[in-house]
Amino acid sequence: MKYIQENRPDNECIFCLAAESKEDEKHLVFYRGEHVYMILNRYPYTSGHVMCVPYVHVPRLHDLKQATRTEMMELVSLSVEVLQSVYEPDGFNVGLNLGEVAGAGVADHLHSHIVPRWGGDTNFMTSVGGTRVLPETLGDTYRRVKDAWDRFAMES
What we know:
There is one protein chain. It is built from six helices and five strands. By secondary structure, it is α+β, with helices and mostly antiparallel strands. It has a five-stranded antiparallel β-sheet, with helices on both faces. The termini are far apart. 38% of the residues lie in helices and 17% in strands. It has a single domain, classed as HIT-like (HIT family, subunit A, 2-Layer Sandwich), CATH 3.30.428.10.
């Protein structure tokens, strides 16, 4: 997670910066709700790795108001449906890394990860090379996910 810490302007919160910005595509924000927004992970584990982030800067789940927790869960659920339609994965990892020792790269601003998974989606590059290989650019992922999200939103 060193790359996240080092790439923050003046150690500002990357999630607060994205929330406050009007440049959604630059920050990879593809949906803004009332209490939370949806964003691509800039350092994805797999293609389609997205996050649900509350606008409020808090580290713990119980620090969120019930309306925020509710909207967060609804958008996590919708994101699974959207990503299933776009990528057709075999499954998903969905969850929160609460605290730095739990793997949170940004421990002081709660966020939920939604990661599409396929059988055999780890390979020697990850194990030996310490790097990930993705079949598409973040720009391509952004357009695919945003277009699908907008279609799903229009249908509901």
